[in-house]
Amino acid sequence: xxGTQLKxxxxxxxxxxxxxxxxxxxxxxxxxxxxxxxxxxxxxFICIVGxxxxxxxxxxxxxxxxxxxxxxxxxLDNQEVDGPGKDRxxxxxxxxxxxxxxxxxxxxxxxxxxxRVSNETKKKAQDYISMVGLKGYExxxxxxxxxxxxxxxxxxxxLTVDPSLLLLDEPFSALDAQTRxxxxxxLLRIWSETKKxxxxxxxxxxxxxxxxxxxxxxxxxxxRVVDIVDINIPRPRDLNIKxxxxxxxxxxxxxxxxxxxxxxxxxx
Length: 268
Ligand SMILES: Nc1ncnc2c1ncn2[C@@H]1O[C@H](COP(=O)(O)OP(=O)(O)O)[C@@H](O)[C@H]1O
Ligand SMILES: [Mg+2]
Description:
This protein is α/β, with parallel strands linked by helices. It is 37% helix and 25% strand. A six-stranded mixed sheet has the order 6-7-8-3-9-10, sandwiched between helices. Strands 2-1-4-5 form a four-stranded antiparallel sheet. The radius of gyration is 19 Å and the shape is globular. Magnesium ion binds at residues 56-57.
């Protein structure tokens, strides 16, 4: 890849990033991330995969500005991240909706916090509710919705604030297998309409390959990037590509990297 070209459209950049947790009681340190160097381009869909405990959530929280680097930097649009900001929106594993608010009121919450409620933002909320397939459910409450539908509300809320970077931490992992696949397909459809730069975390390799332009494979102890895999599968992608030999080959490839890493750690 041409270095100058890359520089021009880099959205997010992590340079020499270390994140260490310190236990206040014992003073012991856990090096959660060590020397993370990566660039994400404008409009890319990036997935991070890796075993539990390899620092995926830590990385996302650092990008979100909820955690501070112990060394190195995270930059978004060439600005160093030093706290949370409205340029980033998060979707968590569990829907985190307010039970006393309707779908519409939940979707508008992010806009309210930012004091940006207007006819225009209300219309945007309505558009995203439709885009995630919840038209007609605006006045329903979270307990009236399935887990998959709640997660769509979460996604609509994140999109409505119009972030320049969408951060998703295992958003579908609490869903059953069928709903999860359906949501993967839906997310790609929405992404193709919005082209938001997205950073999606998962521990499921097939989910990462299906969604991403590139997959960053993280290894554990300490968490670091062990490989970056280009996913050269044309879009739009339907779920049948998961049975394509090219797809299966990519799964094998990423599995072998993770297995090799685990063997090094003595997990086998
Ligand atoms: N608040 C915390 N205090 C101390 N250690 C933590 C904390 N959060 C995470 N860790 C440790 O940091 C490492 C990375 O955790 P995490 O980012 O949650 O991994 P992942 O999301 O990949 O499962 C793990 O070893 C975990 O135990
Ligand atoms: Mg995690």
